[in-house]
Amino acid sequence: MSPPVLSDLGYVPPDGGWGWAVVFGASISIGFAFTFPKAFTIYFKEIQAFFNISYSQIAWTTSIMCATTYGGGPISSILVNRYGSRPVVMFGGLLCGVGMISAAFCTSILQLYICVGFITGFGLALNLQPSVIIIGKYFLKRRPIANGLAMAGSPVMLCTLAPLNQFLFDNFGWRGSFLILGAILLNCCVAGALFRPIGPGTALVKTQVTEEGKDALKGKITEDSPMENKTEEEGEKDCFEKVNQYLDFSLFKHRGFLIYLIGNVLMFLGFFAPIVFLAPYAKHTGIDEYSAAFLLSILAIVDMVARPTTGIIANSKWVRPRIQYFFSFAIAFNGACHLLCPLASSYTGLVVYSSFFGLAFGMVCAMLFETLMDLVGAARFTSAVGLVTIAECCTILLGPPIGGILIDTFGDYKYMFIKCGAVMVLAGTFLFIMNYYNYRMLAKEEKERKAKEEAPKSVRTENEGKKIWNKDSTQDGPELEPLREKGEGLKKEMNGTNEV
Length: 500
Hints:
This protein is mainly α.
């Protein structure tokens, strides 16, 4: 599909300049939002032993965190529309720090769910959506590259946080580590400070003032009218319009948006679980803790290269018009890696799996939001990302616990990887087929639209030609008067001859 038109935003994005500083800040915020749930898995075995709980119970910690991060999408979108990206991200960074510092004093798994899952997760939600939204306001032509670079912050963070968490645990224990991690997460506030507002701000202010003046005038005119009190139906309509200012529910009538939503909801059922259980799986096979943590670093290094590379490829003239197909392939490729994971029985095999998994994971993440913006445009993206994330949070919440249940039931990790792989291959296939259908329907609709535009023009041209011909034939100027008299004389002579 073609990129959104420039008028979507009401201004031309700079495609550079301060935008690169925004990309740097977004890479930090997005990096923490995506990486922290993965890096947190280093503490799984120790917390599990400390609280004497099962795999599925400890998996709920990251599941709640991820679900809150995605489920808070609509709230984050509303706050961004109301206050802008900068204050929302800074407040989110503060929440992340408070959540992790509070988690250091937890005495039960339920308290850990609240502090790490809900408080920190909601703070990450206030970091993720605004960071993605602000990139679309600064970039258009180079948007896939900018998104790829911003998403590359996630593997950079993972590459450093995974071994750092192991080091912190060995020296300070999991409680001391949580205190330090809380301080590190406060850097999101610094990243949010880089998000300088951009857009036709003065135009918006003038519009608001004009609308307020019109409303005041309208109220003054109808002050003495019998329709002074609004009916209940009108009140409900006004309430819906106010909500629709911040969340565009008309997107649910958008065919491309619905295809994206269904495919992604299905995909997230198997998207995060393999990362959550990669390090525990390595430990289960007898690999030492540092080598298991290093697998996440390998995944992160490959992921770090894959994301900007994918952004460059997606920005090319051959791929960008059909970027939805590329996204579908990346999801199916991700699933194929998980299906082959049980064949990796040695550390070398797990290194190979981590490398291919990092490549596939980076491809999906680099295009995750770019494909949505390609479908709905930059102007409606704020609402779209909020509605998508709230729908995705259900499968994000269920994915790792289902994987944990499979591990507890069968005592083996391979069934969890097979489940995740099958789900992602199915999601990729669904998106490929439905995007093909969507492209065909868009081409057909565009053809019909052009035909309708051309048909009235041809009819109008033909009618105008007839009118001009009739006008020329009926309107005789003074220069045609002698010819008309001569013609009348010839008619009389012919009539006289015929009478004889």
